[in-house]
Amino acid sequence: MEALMSFFANIDWLEIWLATGDTLLMLGGSLLFTVLLGLPLGVLLFLCSPRQLLESKGIYAVLSLAVNILRSLPFIILLIVMIPFTVLITGTSLGVAGAIPPLVVGATPFFARLVETALREVDRGIIEATQAMGATTKQIIINALLPEARPGIYAAITVTAITLVSYTAMAGVVGAGGLGDLAIRFGYQRFQTDVMIVTVVLLLVLVQVLQMVGDRLVVHFSRK
Questions:
Q1: Would the pLDDT of 8 be above 70?
Q2: Which residue, 105, 115, 157, 222, could crosslink 151 as a Cys pair with Cβ 3.0–4.6 Å?
């Protein structure tokens, strides 16, 4: 026991707790805005794609290009590039508030593509049946497309949430706080292996919990 305590001599559990709270705040805030922005974007991408309800090659090409550009930009570069914009809208580039805008910009295109893919998996016969009943495009989206694609959308949210966990860790490089910041400042820069191990374990536990919850939601809303 003494050997174990001596190994974790550098651990400040209060700081670990506060860093975990910052990570959860960044994850929750960025995931909320990512879903609010990415879901309509994904639906629009699907509707404007070839052979769909609002087919428009021009709009689809522009949206697809924008999404592909943002998806291909490494997140660490995005963090740095967005610092002036982040300061403009939040007043700071540090802490939880400074991390959320680049997290949202980095994750929204990724989530939108996953939503588009989930909608493509909906049986086209369901869409045609609702059209035959005289449903409007809005009614088709709300009453047919989204309910049928719900398992895929929950799976997309789960994958996005796990991706955001890794993004929050990288955000520690620019002083965003959280477990990633703790791992960099103490585990890496000060060679405190015990801090690094604890932060990595906590991030792994967080990912596992997110995956379990997401899997349960997907199973619950899937067709029996």
A1: no
A2: 222
pLDDT average, residue stretch 66-92: 86
In the structure encoding, which two tokens stand for residue 82, read together?
């967005």
Contact 172, 103 (CB under 8 A): no
Amino acid present at 47: L
What is the pLDDT, as a whole number, of residue 188? 67
Could you tell me the two tokens for 40? 């309509």
Report CA torsion sign: 203, 217, 45, 85: negative
| Domains assigned to the chain | 11-221 (1.10.3720.10)
| Closest residue by Cα to residue 83 from 99, 96, 69, 70 | 99
C-alpha distances out from residue 83 to 40, 72, 164, 182, Å: 26, 19, 18, 21
- Quick: pLDDT tens for 97-155: 888 999 999 999 999 999 999 999 888 888 888 888 887 888 888 888 898 899 999 99
Residue (of 138, 183, 149, 148) closest to 20 by Cα position = 183
Among 90, 111, 107, smallest CA distance to 170 is for: 107
Task: Supply the pTM of this predicted model.
Answer: 0.89
Q: Which amino acid is at 53?
A: L
Other CB atoms within a 10 A radius of the CB of residue 210 amount to 20
Across 171-175, average pLDDT: 75
